[in-house]
Each structure stands twice: as structure tokens, then as C-alpha cells.
Amino acid sequence: MLEDLIAERKKKLAALTSAGVLCYPESVPRTHVIGAALEHFVAFAKSKKKISVAGRVTGMRGHGGVTFLDLKDESGSLQAVLKKDELAAFELMRDNLDIGDFLSITGILFITQRGEKSIAAKKVVLATKTIRPIPSEHFGLEEVETRLRQRYLDLMLHPELREMFRMKSRFWNAFRTELIGDGFLEVETPALESTPGGADAEPFVTHHHALDIDLYLRISLELPQKKLLVGGYEKVFELGRIFRNEGIDHEHLQDYTQLEFYWGYAEYNALMTMVEKLYKSVIKSVFGTLKRPWQEKTIDWGKRWPKIEYYDVFKKLVGLDLQTASRDELTAEAVKRGFKSDPKLGRGRLIDLLFKKLVRPTLIQPSFLINPPADIEPLAKRSATLPGRVARFQVVACGTELGKGFSENNDPLDQRARFEEQSRLRDAGDKEAQRLDEDFLEALEYGMPPAAGFGVSERLFAILVDKPARECVFFPTLRPRGEKS
Q1: pLDDT tens for residues 424-456?
Q2: Torsion of CA 370, 375, 379, 382, to 10 degrees
Q3: What one-character DSSP code corresponds to residue 343?
Q4: How many structural domains does the chain have?
Q5: Helices marked H in 54-116 — which ranges?
Q6: Rounded mean pLDDT of the chain?
Q7: Max CA-CA distance within the chain?
Q8: What is the DSSP letter of 358?
């Protein structure tokens, strides 16, 4: 039983403490990480120079007066050889160490008769005594909920997972490097807002005690960056957390990282060219190839991305012409297809429902989906040539959206009218409809230059590594242990 294993370890802790061993010292000797010791192994072994390495014990084997330990740190693994005739406290350590403990080993590098690179211990210092055995000792760590809840164990046991998160760091850094190199300024904007805006999503609500006001966690990075364009900046971006109080599935998280950037004097055609180049550069630098596996398919990010007209593909796969389709016709189609159609939904939400159910899943290879109806994008500039549509595109691949950009609406009167329409939809019961933001409208009235903006979330990385979104964050939000829905 786990309780018995913990009790046994506590006895060992007491034995070490009573013998005067510090079980949780402030620091321990460490002259080299294990990777560096292995890299310079021949020179160190030849010189018989003493070095100190430290790490977690991942294996123990004993043969009489000799104990073999596997010692691992972030950079690598090395065998340590402890001999009774060379260590004054050999029996104390041998009898009271456990797999999972952290040690510092000072000694000389050598190769055993079996040809294994090792360190002959001259001094052993306990760095941390563990109370709980690591999972492989008693129950394993296979169930997904357990792995996500105790992520530190998942990381400890699966080096490939640690490498995935290093890759994710390189992924975001590649975007940052590209944008800074292209003259964009990285900015920080508030995570707390009095009016949540920039997306169709339900926000989280919190209370600011000092000001005695309710605030919202931001659902987008958009509107503050547009205010910065009003203020005189022309290229800005932010890489930050956003929060959306919506459902959980393999693509959606409630708090996640998003990149958004805004480019003054650009429009969505120039933005598409930039985004395609940006994605290809990032994917190539992180993965070394532009072809990635996804659900037994090969996704080729290296080909030229085609442009697909929203109205054309919608008519082909749904059977309705969005130039003429009424809300009632859209509702009837949704019901006929077996989808739940809330009577509170406006025309734009119905279009989006049918699109997400019937069209988007068919778009597998990277493409630009362009020129959707204005009903579904209240912040985008209206198309100059296509009535009823907006100058927007989505990056679509693997049956989902993997980025969105558009020419920004900088007409304050049109923007107010579209916010007012969103407000009517909210009053009718659409919780995700956008809110009228007077502060933002006031900023637009001072004048924002023509601009294009783009956003991409960490869903892109999850798709690129072919994993559910929540497995690509260190600590996804879970129901507290023991609580049931």
C-alpha cells in the first residue's frame, strides 16, 4: 500500500536526521551538470579530476559492499558507484536512500568493466529526501486525468513530454523573433477590463476590491492594441494569456496563450502574404520540416495556400446562398441537419453554427478562407467590392481554425452601429455577442490609420504536435480532486 511505503520512507528520514544528516540542505556541491560531465568525460577521466554532479536517483542496485545508482538531471544520466571501503557513511546511505531522492556525488569519472561511463563516489551529500515513491514504484501513471492533475510526475517520467514543452517554448519564441525582426514592438496590455471585447466569447468576472468595481478577464488582446495604433505606434504585438468561460473539448481551453499583432497601413491581402510566410518560417525552424503528421494524414504546410471563398464553399456544402438566405432558412437548415438551434441566435451565429458543423471539418490542408458575411465579424472592415461581406480571412487546416486576420474597421460610426446590433443580440439572449465599448469608440473617433490585425492561439501548436489542447499546457484547469459534476 502507498501508505506503508510513505511510512517506511519517513522512518528512513528519521534515521538520517538522528545520524546528523541534513535531509533538506540549502545547497549541495555541483561543479557540472551531467551532460557537461559526459561531454568532457574522456578528459576528466584521464586527469582523475574530482567533479561534483547532482540529480535524482532513478535506479538502485546493490552487490555486497558496492551500490550502483542511476543519477539523472535535466541534461542527462550517469551511473554512480558507491563502495563501502571508500565512503565513511556507506551503510547509512545504502540503507536509507530511495529511488526519487536527490543526491550530490563528488568523485572521479571512470568506465566500468562492462563499459559504462560512471562516477566513483568519494563523497555523497543528500540534497532532498523524498517522502512519496515515484509512480513507477507502486501504481504507474497511465490515466489521463491523473497525468494532467499531477503534471510534475508526468514530466518526471516522460522525457518526450519535457521535450514537447521545450519545443513549445521555441515555437512562441520563433514568432516573437520574426515579428521583432520585422519591426514590431512587443507590448503588454491589461488582463482586467471593464468591458470585455475583441471576440465572441463569454468572459470570467472578478471584483476589484480597491476600486470596488466588477471587472472581466480579457477575452482578446485586440482593442487595447488598436488604441496603441491611435496613439501613434504602427506595428505592435502581444503574446499573452486570455480567458474565455466556455466549453471544454480537445481544441478549447478556458485560459490559454494567444499572439495578436496589428500592422498600420496594411490590409488583409498583404497580411495573408505575411502570415503564410510567418507560419512556414516558424514551423520549419521548430520542427525542421513543413510536413507534419496529423491523425494518420500528412499536412503539407509548404505548399502555396489556396484562397477559398466563404460564400462559395458554404453554398456547396450547406446548400444555402448567403447572399439571400434569411435567418428562418438558416434555422430550418440547422434543424433539418439535427443541430440544436437556440431561437435566441442571430443570423450570424446560425451561419457560424452551420459552417463549423458542415464546412470547416472538410478543410484539411492549409488554406485561407476569405470574405465571410459581416454578420459574423463585427470588428472587420466591410469589403469594398463584395456587399455584405468583410475583408477577413481565417487560416484553416486539420478541420479547424488556426488563425484569423482582417482589415480593421476604423470607421467609428459604422463600428458603433455594429456594436449596437451586437447589443441587441445580447439583449435577446446571445451571451457571446460583443459589447458596446464606449472607450474604444472614443479612441476611434480620434482616428486610427488603416490597419490589418491577426491572432493565433496555442491551438496551432497542439495541431502541429497532434495532441489535444489540454495536453499541451503544463497545468490545465481541472475540477478539484473529489468533486463531481
Answers
A1: 888 888 888 888 999 999 999 999 999 999 999
A2: 60
A3: T
A4: 2
A5: 90-96
A6: 94
A7: 91
A8: I
Find all residues with CB under 8 Å of 237, minimum gap 6, and list them.
179, 184, 185, 186, 187, 225, 259, 260, 261, 262
Domain range enclosing 88? 2-140
Report the distance separating Cα 71 and Cα 101, nearest Å. 10
> How far is Cα of residue 60 from the mean position of the Cα atoms in its chain?
36
What are 166's three cell numbers? 521545450
Cβ atoms within 10 Å, residue 482:
5
| Residue 83 pLDDT | 95
Q: Are 172 and 165 in contact (CB under 8 A)?
A: no
Per residue in 212-237, pLDDT (tens digit) is 999 999 999 999 999 999 999 999 99
Cβ contact 260:221 at 8 Å: yes
Q: Which of 116, 140, 164 is the last residue of a domain?
A: 140
* Residue among 232, 247, 428 nearest 343 (CA): 428
Tell me the pLDDT tens digit for each residue of 88-127.
Answer: 889 999 999 999 999 999 999 999 999 999 999 999 999 9
Q: Where are the alpha helices (DSSP H) in 358-481?
A: 412-427, 438-445, 459-464
- Name the pTM for this structure: 0.92
Separation CA 161–CA 481 (nearest Å)? 23
Number of residues that make up the chain: 485
Pairing of the two strands 185-186 and 205-208: unpaired
Q: Which grid cell is 37?
A: 560531465
**Is 462 found in the same domain as 436?**
yes
Q: Based on the fold, state whether residues 295 and 387 are members of the same structural domain.
A: yes
The CA distance from 330 to 352, in Å, is: 10
Mean pLDDT calculated for residue range 72-84: 96
CB count within 10 Å of CB 205 equals 11
136, amino acid identity: S
- Where is the domain boundary, 107, 140, 173? 140
Give the strand pairing for 51-63 and 102-111.
antiparallel
Residue 398 in grid coordinates: 486539420
Q: Which letter, b or e, does each residue of 156-166 get, where b requires 16 or more Cβ atoms within 10 Å of its Cβ? A: bbeeebeebee
Q: Are residues 280 and 388 in the same domain?
A: yes
- CATH number, position 319: 3.30.930.10
Residues 6+ apart with CB under 8 A from 209: none
Can you state the percent helix, strand and coil of the chain, rounding each to 5? 35, 25, 35
- What was the pLDDT predicted at 139? 52
Q: Are 376 and 406 in contact (CB under 8 A)?
A: no
Q: Residue 244: name the closest of 191, 194, 207, 208 by CA.
A: 191
In angstroms, the CA 318 to CA 310 distance is 11
